[in-house]
Amino acid sequence: MRNGRAPFIAGFLFAPVLLYVVYVLIPYVRTAYFSLTDFNGFSPEYGFVGLGNYLELLKDEVYLRAIGHNAVVLTVFPIVTILLALFFAFMLNVGGRGDKAGIRGVRGSSLYKFIFFFPQVLSIAIVAVIWRRVFQSNDGGMINAVLMSLGLVDEEKPLLFLAESDSVIPPIHLGAFTLDAPVVLICLIAVAIWGGVGFYLVLFSAAMQSIPKDIYEAATLDGATRVQTFFRVTLPLLREHVSVAWIYLGIAALDFYALVIGLTPGAGGGGPNNASEVMSSWMLTSAFRSSRYDGFAFACAMGMSIALLTMLLAGVQFRLTRSRDKLEF
Amino acid sequence: MTVTPDSPSELNRRTVLRRAAAAGLLAAPAISALAACASEDGDGGTTGEKTEANPFGVGDKQPLEVAFFNGGFGEDYAKFDVAAYEAKWPGSKVDLKFSKLILTDYQPRFYGGNPPDLLNNSSPETIPVGPVIQGNQLRDLTELLEAGSYDDPKVKVKDTLVAGTIESGLFNGKPYTLNYAYSIYGMWYDETLFATKGYTVPKNWDEFAALAEKAKADKIAAFTFQGIHPWYIFNVVNEFIWMAGGLDAFMKIDNLEPNAWKQDAVKLTAERLAEMAAKGWVQAGASGLDHTTTQQAVLDGKALFIWCGSWLEGEMAKTIPAGVKLAVAPPWNISASDKSKYGTVHAAPGEGFIVPSRSKNPAGGLEFLRMMLGKEQARKFAELTKSLPVVKGAADGLTISNALTSASKVAAAAPEVISWRYEGWYAPLVTAVGNAATDLLAGKSTPDAFMAAVQKVADEVAKDEKIVKQKRTA
Which residue ranges run through the membrane (chain A) (predicted)? Predict the structure, then answer.
C-alpha cells in the first residue's frame, strides 16, 4: 500500500508543481539573475555587473518616494478595510434589534451583502472606468457635479482628485527619501477600500455564522449591549480570520499596480508628476521608459526589492498574529 | 516616445485592459513562432538575385512576416499593401499580424532572436530603438534609402521622401527607423465658432491675450490641453520655446548643455503658461481630464484652442457636431522679441517602421517597405487614413477633409518647419517637461520651479553614463 501511494501523490502534484516551476520559480530566478546584469530586455547578450543596480536603487528619488506611497497604503488600506468589513459583517449578522427572539442582522441584510460584494465581481478595468467618471475634474464628474450644484465648489475651480498632487500630510524628507500622501493616492485607497470591503465582509460573515448563537444569547441575557457583544464576543472569536485578512490586504497594499495604471495621469500612470507612483508602477516605467540601456536589469533589481519587502512584511505579520490557544466550538 | 498619430493618448485609458489581455496575447506570438519553426525546413525559400528591380535579392516564394500597429490608421492600408506584395511576388505568403501594443507583443520576439521581417514600431509603447541597436538587432536602412524607388529605379528612394523624413529616424547618425506618416501639429480650433463670434486667430501674444479676455467674457476658455497625457503640453512648451528662441535654443536643449532650461526663451515660455493659468484662460479642471474630453470641449465650443496633431479630425470623427469646421493655426508669437516668424510650424514624420536584422527574411522586409513608399501605396494610405504619408506629392489633388486641407495650407505657408530631437532620445526629460508644464497650467507651480525641476532632470540625464548620448548638429 505504501509503495502505491507515492506515485499516486506524485501524479496529483505533477501538474501544479510543473506550472509553479515554469511560471513562478523560473521567472523569479531569472529576474534575480538579470538584476545582477546590464540586460536590456531585448538582446540575448549582456554582461554581469554585480550589485550595482541595487546600489542605484537607493539613489532613485522616485523609487524611494514610491516606497513611501506604498507605506501609506499599507497603513491606511488594511486597517480601514478590516474595520469597515467587521462593522458591516456584525451589523448584517448580529446587529439587528433584539426586540424579537433570536439573533439576527439588520433588516434587508441579504440585499446589503449583495451590494457590498458587487465591486468584487467587477474587473479592475471596469472599476477604473467607473471611478474616473466619479472623480472627473469638471462638471461632468459625479462628485464635482454634486458639489457644484450645492454651491460648495466653484465651477471655475473644480476639485482635481486624481490629478491633485497636494499632500494631505506635510511631506517628510529624509535625505533622498520622501514620505507624502497626495490626494490622488488617497483617492486610490478609497477605490481599493470600496472594492475590497465586500470580500472581507463575506469572509467575516461566514466566520460569524459559525459562532454558536447561544454565546450571543447568553451575552444578551446578561445585558450586554451591541457594542460590548462586538468587542467581547465577536472580535476575539474572529481573531484568526482578521489576521488572514491582514496578510492578504498587506500584500495587496504592496502591489496597487492596476489601480495606479488604470486611474492616474501620465504615461504608464503614476502621475501627476509621480504623485501616485508606487513601487510596481515605477518598476514598469523604469524597465522601458528610462532611456538607460540597462533599464530592464535595473527594473529587475527593483522587482527583487519589492519581493523582499513583501516577504519581510508577510513574515512579520505571521509572527505578530501567530495564533495562541484556539477556542473549539 | 514616438509621434504616433493615434497618439499617446491611448496610454492610460485602455492600458488596464491591455495589461489584462497581455498575458493572453503573449502566448499568441509564441505559438506562431513554434509553428514557424516547424514549417521552416520545408518551404523556407531561397534568396533571389539582386537586380535593379529587386535590389535586395528577394527570392520567389519566400514567406514574409509583417507586423502592423492597429491604431488610428486602422488595418485597411496594411491589408492593401499585403495584397499588393503578394501580387508582385506570387507564391510568397505574407503573414500579416496586428498588435495594439507593439512593445508587449514583440519584446519577447527580439529577445528570442526570431523577430518579424518588418515591424510597425508605433503604439503607446514602442520597442525602444537604442537598446535594440546595441544588440545589433536592427537593420541600417541606408541600403533601402539608396536603392531605386519602386516606381522608377532611376530615382533613389531617399529622393522620393519629404524633407526631414530620414533625419527623423536617425539614431547614432544612422537611419534605423523609417517614419511613414507626416503629421502637422498646431493649435486647433473651430472655424465656425470663430466666424460666428467674430474672433480672429491670434498672431502674437497681445492678440491672444485680447482674444482670451473676450472669450472669457463669453464664458469660453481660450485654451485647453489633454491634461492627463502630459505629452501634449510637452509639445506646446517646445513650440513656445522655439517661437521665442529659435533653433539656437534647441541646439542647447537637445545637446543637454548646462542651464539650457534656464535660458531666456524657456523662462518666457514658463511665464506665459503661468500667465494663462493665473488669468483663468485655461479650461477649468483640464489637468485632470483626458484627451477626448478636452478635445470635445473645443468641438463643443467650450474652449477655443487645443494643441494636437493632424489626426485630430479622424480621432474625434464620431463626435464632431454638425457645422463644426476644424482648422489648425500655427503657434502664435509669445513676445515682440521672438526669434521665429509667425507661421513657423511643427511638423514631423511619425509612425515608424523598423526592419529587424535577425529575422528570416529581412530582404523581404526591406522590399515591403520600398513598395509601401511607392506612389500607389502612398496615395492609398492618404485616402484610407486621411493622413499624409512621407512620400512627396502622394496626396496631391486629394480633397479629403477640411482639417487636412487646412493643415496642408499651414505647412505650405510655413517659413520654417521645426522639430526637436530630445523627444526620441531622452525619455526622462520628456516626462519631466510634461509633468512640470502640467503643474504650471494647473496653477500649482511657478516659472522658477518649472525651470529648476526640468534642469535638474536634464543634468541627471547628462550625467547618467547609462543613457547613450546623441548630438544635434543642425
Answer: 7-26, 67-90, 111-131, 183-203, 245-264, 296-316
Residue length of chain A: 329
Instruction: Please identify among residues 405-434 of chain B the ones whose CB lies closer than 8 Å to any CB of chain A.
Output: 425-428, 431, 434
Name which CATH class applies to B10-183+348-413. Answer: alpha beta
* CA A104 vs CA A84, A90, A217, A284, A328: distances in Å: 19, 10, 11, 48, 22
The ipTM (two decimal places) reads 0.86
Using N-to-C axis directions, what is the helix angle for A61-93 and A183-209, rounded to 10°?
40
A54 near A269, Cβ under 8 Å? no
CATH superfamily of A48-320: MetI-like (1.10.3720.10)
- What is the mean predicted confidence (pLDDT) over B51-66? 86
B302: which residues sit within 8 A by CB, 6+ positions away? B220, B221, B224, B283
Can you give the residue ranges of every domain in chain A?
Answer: 48-320
> Does A136 sit within 8 Å of B289, measured CB to CB?
yes
Q: d(Cα B366, Cα B260) in Å, to the nearest integer?
A: 39
B452 touching A, CB under 8 A?
A: no
Q: How confident is the model at residue B304 (pLDDT cuts 50, 70, 90)?
A: very high
Domain extents in chain B: 10-183+348-413, 185-345+420-463
Q: What is the pTM of this model?
A: 0.83
Q: Distance of CA B217 to CAs A169, A253, B96, B214, B298, Å?
A: 38, 48, 54, 5, 17
pLDDT per position as a tens digit, A205-249: 889 888 888 888 888 888 888 888 888 888 888 888 898 898 889
Using the beta-carbon criterion (under 8 Å), do A290 and B428 form an inter-chain contact? yes
Q: Are A261 and A268 in contact (CB under 8 A)?
A: yes
C-alpha grid cell, residue B365: 522586409
* Bridge partners of residue B66, in order along the sequence: B96, B118
A274 Rama sector, left if φ>0, alpha if ψ -120 to 50, beta otherwise: left
A203-235 per-residue burial string, b: 16 or more CB within 10 A, e: under 16: bbbebbeebeeeebeebbeeebebeebbeebbe
- B127 phi, psi to nearest 5 deg: -70, 120
Taking CA B454 as the corner, what is the angle to CA B453 and CA B460, rounded to the nearest 5 degrees? 95
User: B447, B434, B445: which is closest to B236 by C-alpha?
Assistant: B434
B435 Cβ under 8 Å from any chain A Cβ: yes
| Terminal C-alpha separation, chain A | 36
Nearest to A275 by CA among A131, A162, A143: A162
- Same fold yes or no, B10-183+348-413 and B185-345+420-463: yes
Please give the C-alpha separations between residue A185 and each of A164, A169, B258, in angstroms, as whole numbers: 9, 12, 35
Alpha carbon separation from B459 to A41, A91, B7, B432 (Å, rounded): 26, 58, 28, 12
Cα gap B383→B389, rounded to integer Å: 10
A78 in Cβ contact with A250 (< 8 Å): yes
Summarize pLDDT for A45-65 with one digit per residue, the tens. Answer: 788 998 999 999 998 999 999
Do you know the residue count of chain B? 474
A258 contacts in chain B (CB < 8 Å): 16, 19
Judged by CB atoms closer than 8 Å, whether chains meet at B435 and A266 is answered as yes
The CATH class of B185-345+420-463 is: alpha beta
* DSSP notation for A186-235: HHHHHHHHHHHHHHHHHHHHHHHHTS-HHHHHHHHHTT--HHHHIIIIIH
DSSP label at A292? B
Q: How confident is the model at residue A3 (pLDDT cuts 50, 70, 90)?
A: low
What are the CA-CA distances from residue B377 to residues A172, B57, B79, B98, B374 (Å)? 59, 21, 11, 19, 6
Residue that has been written with the C-alpha cell 539582386 in this structure: B50
Find chain A residues with C-beta within 8 A of B103's C-beta.
288
For residue B130, the distance in angstroms to the closest alpha carbon of chain A comes to 7
Residue B23 in this model has a pLDDT that exceeds 90: no
